[in-house]
Amino acid sequence: MDGSAPGLGAADPQLQRFIEVETQKQRFQQLVHQMTELCWEKCMDKPGPKLDSRAETCFVNCVERFIDTSQFILNRLEQTQKSKSAFSESLSD
Amino acid sequence: MESGFGSDFGGCGGGKLDPGLIMEQRMTDKCFRKCIGKPGGALDNSEQKCIAMCMDRYMDAWNTVSRAYNSRLQRERANM
């Protein structure tokens, strides 16, 4: 590549777009792995010949509640930071 | 593939990050926990059968989670 542009894909919006999409896919997969692992503990008893509908429902609910939890935490942290202006100072780490 | 990259983990069309390796590690962990009681001198038939079923169920679970997550993402996007 003979472009003098600094940074990946800075001169090529198509490449940049490709990188964005691939990064998103990766993030998606990582989360699926994480949620599958967590929800397996909550939803699976003894592995049977197929995934019964109760377990399947549990997995679906589990995903939704996981995302709800994540959003809840984000929102509350945001609120806490807004209401306490000294919040970042009170974090002694 | 803009409509969602949450498709089933069957043929693994976008295997750029080798999800197979992560999958193998998790399966080994989960299925060992579910299927092996007191470790004996070898894996007996029932343990092997359990592990095989466990692998398939883990795959099913992965696909279910993937679909559910994808749906949620699309719903969130629709609400923006």
UniProtKB/TrEMBL annotation, chain A:
Q: A GO molecular-function term, please?
A: metal ion binding
User: What GO CC terms are in its UniProt record?
Assistant: mitochondrial inner membrane
KW Membrane (keyword) present: yes
The UniProt keywords, alphabetically, are:
Chaperone, Disulfide bond, Membrane, Metal-binding, Mitochondrion, Mitochondrion inner membrane, Protein transport, Translocation, Transport, Zinc
Role description? Mitochondrial intermembrane chaperone that participates in the import and insertion of some multi-pass transmembrane proteins into the mitochondrial inner membrane. Also required for the transfer of beta-barrel precursors from the TOM complex to the sorting and assembly machinery (SAM complex) of the outer membrane. Acts as a chaperone-like protein that protects the hydrophobic precursors from aggregation and guide them through the mitochondrial intermembrane space.
How is the subunit organization of this protein annotated in UniProt? Heterohexamer.
Protein name per its UniProtKB record: Mitochondrial import inner membrane translocase subunit
Which gene specifies this protein's sequence? LOC101871126
Automatic annotation (TrEMBL), chain B:
User: What UniProt keywords apply to this chain's record, in alphabetical order?
Assistant: Chaperone, Disulfide bond, Membrane, Metal-binding, Mitochondrion, Mitochondrion inner membrane, Protein transport, Translocation, Transport, Zinc
The record describes its membrane topology as: Peripheral membrane protein
Compartments (UniProt record):
Mitochondrion inner membrane
Signal peptide (from-to): none
Q: Name one GO biological process term.
A: protein transport
Q: How does it assemble?
A: Heterohexamer; composed of 3 copies of TIMM8 (TIMM8A or TIMM8B) and 3 copies of TIMM13, named soluble 70 kDa complex. Associates with the TIM22 complex, whose core is composed of TIMM22.
For this entry, the protein name equals: Mitochondrial import inner membrane translocase subunit
Q: Which organism is it from?
A: Melopsittacus undulatus (Budgerigar)
